[in-house]
Amino acid sequence: MLLDNISDFLNDCGYDLEQEIIRISGVINVNAFSTVKSEFQGRDCVRIVQCIYPWASLLAHSCVPNACWSIDNTKELRISIRAATTIKKGEIITIAYNLPETMSGTLHRLISTEDVAHFLCRCKRCSDKTELGTFASAIKCFDCENGYLLPESPTTPDSEWECCGCDSLQAVPKIVLFLNNIEETYENITRRQYSRDIEVKKLELLLRQTGDLLHENHYILQEFRMRIINLQIHSLDHVNETDLERFINHCKFMLKIADVLMPGFSKTRALLQFFLSQGLLRKVSRKTQDPEENEKEIADLYKEIHYLQTRALLYFNNQHSFSLRSEAESNQFAVCIKRQLKNLESYIN
Ligand SMILES: [Zn+2]
Ligand SMILES: [Zn+2]
Questions:
Q1: Among the listed residues 281, 293, 225, 232, the one whose alpha carbon sits nearest the alpha carbon of residue 254
Q2: I want to staple 308 with a disulfide (CB 3.0 to 4.6 A). Which of 8, 262, 273, 289 is the partner?
């Protein structure tokens, strides 16, 4: 549309206008930081803004970033860059250009980064077909029983996928079609507006069925688990013991993967630490009502909850208010954790 609007004026410039506009869009996309800015001008007003910062725009991208960024809600839109992990002297400081994509698999991220920022990522996660040993994109082989299909050359989007257990080779379109069919089944469930309980039951069934087709750490299964966690967090007081245990296991499972792929100070880890602590709080409260329960096990649970909540609080307390909604969300988590920590201290000491 931009091209249509200005081509009449610039047709005689003597260079390839379309290519130039694509190049400029790429430069802006790769260097700009998008944020949601909330304002109150008689009514709530939300705008998406793209900001360019001379220094922060120099930061390199990685799909396993060692730093994170946030933009505050002041008029100046100040940016803060914070170390997410320990950064050694001389190590390149990296951030994720497209944060939501860090949950997905390499092929998905490659296509998305190329689309938005016009470059093919070659970070340590993208260059490793096992995605740092997580097997987050691995598919069970179509031809043998125990092998997994992985891309031969992970940073080449049209590379064939080979099995690590037999000599099976699969072309990318077949892999994409296979994954799209699973995603479509998932979307058919989430779009139907079932009640929370019914949707959780359907997703658990899909998780079991799809677990036979993909590696247990596959990013699509992580997406199912995250959806189940987000649905069940609202009804933890009413779920039965089996469902509570399953909720706790989903959180622990997701945290283990996030520890590798989104290490350190990240929103995903902070949320999972908070969600897991909520599941464990319900578990310990049920255990304390049973006189037969082991006191040591109960004390250990309190310690685990305390650890998770202090870690999550560290993240939420330090989040800049890049939008009013986000600030309110972070505050809400922080207030809830502080209240629960106060109660916990009497059990721990
Ligand atoms: Zn990458
Ligand atoms: Zn095989």
A1: 225
A2: 273
- How many CA atoms lie within 13 Å of 166's alpha carbon, on the beta-carbon side? 11
Residue type, 342: K
Which tens digit of pLDDT belongs to each residue from 258-306? 999 999 888 889 999 999 999 999 999 888 887 777 888 888 999 999 9
How far apart CA 200 and CA 135 sit, in angstroms, is 25
CA 125 to ligand 1 centroid distance, Å:
6
Name the nearest CA neighbour of 232 among 196, 204, 201. Answer: 196
Cα distances (angstroms) measured from residue 346 to each of 243, 303, 340, 342, 343: 28, 12, 11, 8, 6
Q: Does residue 324 contact residue 73 with C-beta atoms inside 8 Å?
A: yes
pTM of this structure: 0.85
pLDDT of residue 327: 61
In sequence order, what are the beta bridge partners of 49?
A: 35
Enumerate the domain spans of the chain.
Answer: 1-26
- Minimum-distance ligand to the CA of 63? 1
Ligand nearest to the CA of 142: 2
Q: What is the distance in A from the centroid of ligand 2 to the CA of 140?
A: 8
Q: Which of 132, 142, 211 is nearest to 171 (CA)?
A: 142
User: SS3 of 140, please?
Assistant: strand
What 3-state DSSP class applies to 81? strand
pLDDT tens-digit readout, 56-87: 989 998 999 999 888 877 778 888 888 999 99
